[in-house]
Amino acid sequence: MSLKFVISGGGTGGHVFPAIAIAKQISLELPSAEILFVGAEGKIEMQKVPEAGYNILGLEVVGLQRKLTLKNILKNLVFPFKLIKSLNRAKKIIKDFNPDIAIGVGGYASGPTLRVAGKMKIPTLLQEQNSYAGLTNKLLAKNASCICVAYDGMDRFFDKNKIIFTGNPIRKDILDNMNNRNEAISHFNLDINKKTILVLGGSLGARTINLAIKQKLDLIDKNNVQVLWQTGKFYFENMSCIVKTKGFNNIHPKAFIKRMDLAYCVADIIISRAGALSVSELCIVKKPVILVPSPNVAEDHQTSNAKSLVNKKAAVHVKDVDADTILVEKVLELLNNEVKCAELIENISVLARPDATEKIVNEIFKIVKFKN
After folding, report:
1. Are 206 and 91 part of one and the same domain?
2. Which of 38, 125, 233, 307 has the fewest CB atoms found within 10 Å of its own CB?
3. Cβ–Cβ contacts within 10 Å for residue 321, how many?
4. SS3 category, 147
5. CB–CB of 113/38 below 8 Å?
6. 109 close to 61: Cβ distance less than 8 angstroms
7. What burial class does residue 338 get, using C-beta atoms within 10 Å of its C-beta: 0-12 exposed, 13-18 middle, 19+ buried?
8. Domain that holds residue 26
9. Counting beta carbons within 10 angstroms of the beta carbon of residue 4, is it exposed (0 to 12), middle (13 to 18) or buried (19 or more)?
10. DSSP-derived 3-state class of residue 141
């Protein structure tokens, strides 16, 4: 009889892509495994999980809105009703599928799913990506068998006897294609003789980073470098129109970069937000990085993520509020400072955890007493 695994959570790529990486590793090590995802209706997982080849069922769960605007207060009024509905739906899913273990990766959907699983005496494992634990995982931690973390000091949130330091799961293609520079140059139609700045703001884009790049396009152009620029879908039309109007052939805006493996490969320096998945991937790719943490996240956890690198001299930190005035200048200065770049590369390399996914799956198998 094959083992059954429920994986629940999502809401952002930072939760979804680690979940998919875990599923793929389970499938690789145990081809007979049955895997079912449980996500939140309307969120990114409902698209990305089927694209990866796995089944997913959705809950109508929503999160509590912390900023007390009139609109958010109205949203919070429906929260308890959707929570009850989601708990009932999760109960039916768990009862019908009857998994051997439930794995939570954070995000709205993992709350009802793992709570129900725990009440039905099904063992649970949590994977916490951030240096500041998410609310859902903090609530679920008491009944979890194991909590896999990526940062030191997580015993301030969880029982230290349950914590296993594994690092965050990384998309396998990023590890496999870091030496394909010629393919990357061709794929993005770049100039092989120019240094490349890779700008990332997440799949939806980052307004502050985009505006900082936009207003310094002339300065970038004068420095004979090229920019591979993931603007996000909301900003792409405006940014690409400006680039085209000004005739900057060295600026390459993209709504979304699917081949992140090739983008990382071709980059000489990277500007990025400081989501947990991004930070873990940046440690793997071993490039000089300037982090601009988003201030619009729960508990300001991106700043905590960034500081975990900056404190070890493994990245440069630019505050979101300062990005429009100093970001581009910092990038160009760093790009021309070979000694500083070498120091950043050396220090960030030490923090890489390329075997994180295997370690997490090993803990999962331990819990279900599977012997490889």
Report:
1. no
2. 233
3. 10
4. strand
5. yes
6. yes
7. exposed
8. 4-169+354-367
9. middle
10. helix
- Residues 86 and 234 grouped into a single domain: no
Token digits of residue 132: 């500041």
Q: What is the DSSP letter of 118?
A: H
- Side chain identity, residue 360: I
pTM here is: 0.87
Looking at the structure, tell me whether residues 262 and 332 fall in a common domain: yes
One domain, residues 30 and 78: yes
Q: Which residues contact residue 283 at a Cβ distance below 8 angstroms, ignoring those fewer than 6 apart?
A: 309, 314, 348, 349, 351, 352, 353
Whether residue 372 lies inside any domain: the answer is no
Query: Are 63 and 84 found together in one domain?
Result: yes
Q: Among candidates 17, 240, 246, 2, which has minimal Cα distance to 127?
A: 17
pLDDT per position in the chain (372 positions), as tens?
689 999 999 888 888 999 999 999 999 999 999 999 999 999 999 999 999 999 999 999 876 666 667 666 666 666 677 788 989 999 999 999 999 999 999 988 999 999 999 999 999 999 999 988 988 999 999 999 999 999 999 999 999 999 999 999 988 788 777 778 999 999 999 999 999 999 998 666 689 999 999 999 999 999 999 999 999 988 999 999 999 999 999 999 999 898 999 999 999 999 999 999 899 999 999 999 999 999 988 778 899 999 999 999 999 999 999 999 999 999 999 999 999 999 999 999 999 999 999 999 999 999 998 644
Q: What is the largest CA-CA distance in the chain?
A: 65
Is 193 exposed, middle or buried, given 0-12, 13-18 or 19+ CB atoms closer than 10 A? exposed
Q: Kindly state whether residues 159 and 190 are assigned to the same domain.
A: no
Cβ–Cβ under 8 Å, residues 328 and 220: yes
Beta bridge partners of 149: 128, 165
Give CA–CA dist 327/340, Å, rounded: 16
- Which 8-state DSSP code applies to residue 295? S
User: Cα angle at 185 between 179 and 190, to 5 degrees?
Assistant: 150
Joined tokens for residue 283? 């440690």
Q: Minimal CA–CA distance to 38: which of 103, 130, 118?
A: 103
Q: Which amino acid is at 310?
A: V
Tokens encoding 105: 């990766």
Distance CA 124, CA 144 (A): 5
CATH number of the CATH domain containing 13: 3.40.50.2000
> Of all helices (H) and strands (E), which one includes residue 228?
strand 226-230
Q: Count Cβ atoms below 10 Å from residue 100 Cβ, excluding itself.
A: 19
